Amino acid sequence: MSRLNRIKKVGIIGGGIVGLCLTSAIVQFWEDYPDIYIFDPRFDDRRAYISDSMRSCPPRTNRRSGLVCQGWAGSHGITNVDPAIIDHKIDTITLHKGNQKVEAPDPLGRKMYIINRTPVWREGQLIPSIYQHFQRSISRHDRIHFLPFIVNDISFPQGSNNNFTILCTDHDGKTHQETVNGVVFTTLPPKMKETLSKKIGYRPPHTWPGAIFDVSLESGKWLPKYQTLHKFLVGGGHIHTIDLIPRRDTITVMALGKGATLPFLYQCIDNNSYIQKYLPDHWRTRVVEGSACNLNVPISPAKNVISDGIAGLGGQVFGEHLINGGLYSNLWATELLAKALKKSGFRKEGLEQIYFAKVMKVLRFQNLIGKSLYLLTDRFILPSAWSSSFFLRKIAAEKNLSPEKRLFTRFTWDILIGEEPFSRALARILQGLTVRGFCS
Question: 192 pLDDT exceeds 70?
């Protein structure tokens, strides 16, 4: 009997976008796929509309998955974006630096969607979240099991036993355990992080601080004129950018940088006259209860995330393409991992060669480019009044050009939405600048 035939059960710890897309990829690339057990407390429907006092803190993916772009949806397990889950559409970003403001529509006509991170009541109907939409799209397949459990620990094989046991609890505190042939983790509870550290020498990635919170507008107020993503170019080494992302009656505020702790960011926005100037009339400087979250955003790869029977995926493993590219890199990696599992099972050497080594080679190169771009922007371009003004003037001037000639505008959108590698976006703008240089 082959090694592949012995894989009857796969456990995926973490049912966010990456975990569900891995499930979709396994089904897509593996005709006779094994039983797949996905562990995530968000699968408990009762958690969708119970009070905040009863609901535990949602996983980090939940706080940062409200923004998706048009391009990746059809390529990674969602045939279309269900209109029911779309709360808002953005087809323009507004860049700010001091008292300057430039609106930049995407020359390719792409849109970004703000989608429901959790189920919401709207006009008497319960509208599903992105996770429920993902879940429905793959639940039509057999042998996929959604377990609404909190994973507490994992037990490694003992003696001749080749199976792992996942130890967890449900919403009511009842304990459960599930035996699987191999485990993929996309999120790591504290106890499991400790276990993997002892067993396989796992070391988490380096992180940068970030912050995200929702601020309420006038209750129930819909602001049709507020259709753009407002991106404030802060710079100077503390906070790189501040994004104001509109929703129905709240604005989501996001920032990344070494100074982007939640208290500092909140104070920065409250005291910044330029940001206040562009906020809606019914802005109330009050964090929506339960929505604030300090983030430790992974920016480098972890160490020792592959072992016999164990494979890592997601931000806990690769870090991210800095601000924007984590979604692209993780979804691309799900396809590689699904193919590696099909070909070599959960053997360490197979996972290393087919999956992890290839992923790391690409990510190291892309992260080097990404770091260079953001360090250049943060330390030299944004802090300089002249260079930042020059950048905004160039984007403003491109409105008079045909879409295919809008180099700076497209570069800004490419970096922001993360639909492709940094190298491709950088090569495109360098090629365009070279052509312009020759033409002039």
Answer: yes
